[in-house]
UniProtKB/TrEMBL annotation:
InterPro entries: Carb_Metab_HTH_regulators, DeoR-like_C, DeoR_HTH, NagB/RpiA_transferase-like, Tscrpt_reg_HTH_DeoR_CS, WH-like_DNA-bd_sf, WH_DNA-bd_sf
Protein name, as recorded: Lactose phosphotransferase system repressor
Domain HTH deoR-type, first and last residues per copy: 3-58
Biological function: Repressor of the lactose catabolism operon. Galactose-6-phosphate is the inducer.
Keywords linked to the UniProt accession: DNA-binding, Repressor, Transcription, Transcription regulation
Coiled coil: none
Organism of origin: Streptococcus sanguinis
Gene Ontology molecular functions: DNA binding; DNA-binding transcription factor activity
Pfam families: DeoRC, HTH_DeoR
Length: 250
């Protein structure tokens, strides 16, 4: 089987399975590890697949993380409304995790009235804004910088987060349904899970467009969260399923 034919077969397999182990692909294609690696590298360069920890995933609309500038323009008024509600949780002398999302970044101007805040973030744009706040002691994680995402990611960033404990966490997600909150990829989910584990109160910020949309990587069950803040009332079925596990505000 020639390379182009083999790569076409890989895409065909992934279109049916979404995600598959590389070892299983070798068996299905009857090819060597080195041959498969070359094909996967080429497909990744073409933006058709994602390779991660011995697995291969087809890129779809549900697992692409859009660049920060594009996300910042989406539902801007809704995000501002969410930030106003979220700011009511903030008091003086708190330690706060803020993730790299554009929704959480809307909260930053609301920090100005409070004294002696400590903010820990993996967001480059969040850190840029917070650098001008004299009332904030800022901690920015290192790590791999996802192209266009304004996010520090990977094990280095996760280990950095584990050095801190926060009173509050403000974070967003790619989508949520009545079962769980989801992220576009495991890298973002990994950092946010560490923040959830190391905070007293985890507050999810999600505008109405993110509801009733599930994505390939589960970020968190609602029992691990304390509050969801959105800009309009979720459908009754969502409120009934989730309201007993965490508070929902709009």
């Amino acid at each position: 089987m020639v390379s182009l034919e083999r790569m076409s077969r890989i895409i065909d397999i992934l279109s049916k399975r979404k995600i598959i182990a590389t070892a299983q692909l070798e068996e299905l294609l009857y090819c060597s590890t080195s041959t498969l690696r070359r094909d996967l590298i080429e497909l990744e360069k073409e933006g058709k697949i994602i390779r991660s920890h011995g697995e291969v995933m087809l890129i779809t609309a549900n697992n692409v993380e859009y660049v920060y500038s594009a996300r910042a323009r989406e539902e801007e008024k809704s995000k501002q409304q969410i930030a106003e509600i979220a700011s009511t949780f903030i008091t003086h002398n708190q330690s706060i995790f803020i993730d790299s999302s554009t929704t959480a970044a809307m909260l930053i101007p609301h920090l100005a009235p409070f004294q002696n805040l400590r903010v820990i973030t993996n967001g480059i744009e969040a850190a840029r804004q917070l650098n001008n706040f004299e009332n904030v002691t800022l901690f920015l994680s290192g790590g791999h910088i996802g192209c266009g995402t304004n996010s520090a990611l990977g094990d280095f960033a996760a280990n950095f987060i584990n050095n801190f404990h926060a009173d509050l966490l403000f974070f967003s997600c790619r989508g949520l349904d009545r079962y769980a909150a989801y992220e576009a990829n495991h890298n973002q989910a990994h950092i946010k899970r560490e923040m959830i584990a190391n905070s007293d109160k985890a507050i999810l910020l999600a505008d109405h467009s993110k509801f009733n949309t599930s994505h390939y990587f589960k970020l968190s069950n609602y029992s691990s969260l304390d509050c969801i803040i959105t800009d309009q009332a979720p459908v009754e079925s969502f409120q009934n399923a989730v309201g007993s596990q965490c508070e929902i505000l709009w």
